Give the backbone structure.
Amino acid sequence: MNLSPFIEKLQDLMIENNLNAPALAKILGCSRASINKYLNGKKIPSLDMSIRMANYFQCTMETLLGIDEENHINDFFPCPLFKDRLPILCQYFNISRYELCKRINISESVAYYWSKGTTSPSLESVIKIAECLDCSIDFVIGRSKI
């Protein structure tokens, strides 16, 4: 995953909101070191942390990640647990969990653990799902309507 667009956008958002790393870390409930690792491209934020950032900055996930320049401001919904969202996605797009796994090149066991709530997908996996289903990342995680 190319982190450059995300790093640039995070820096821009921090400047627009007059925030430094310690202030953003406090707002997001993480360490200053984590924010610095994101800004230096040494760490990819978790899905949960990305959602917290997007919620704080009131932007879409695509905007936060630097995928889309324009922020399509929405009334964002609280994200359901992914184990509850996955069957809704499969039903909406008329795709089996098995077929989704094949298309995004993950093992069925990984999706099984997602479906049981044992694990959550990584940010990279959610991006792959959105690309595969040709929808927004926010829709995949239940943060917006299609």
About this structure: Residues 13 and 57 are 7 Å apart (CA to CA). Residues 4-16 form the longest helix (13 residues). The radius of gyration is 15 Å. The chain has a mean pLDDT of 95.
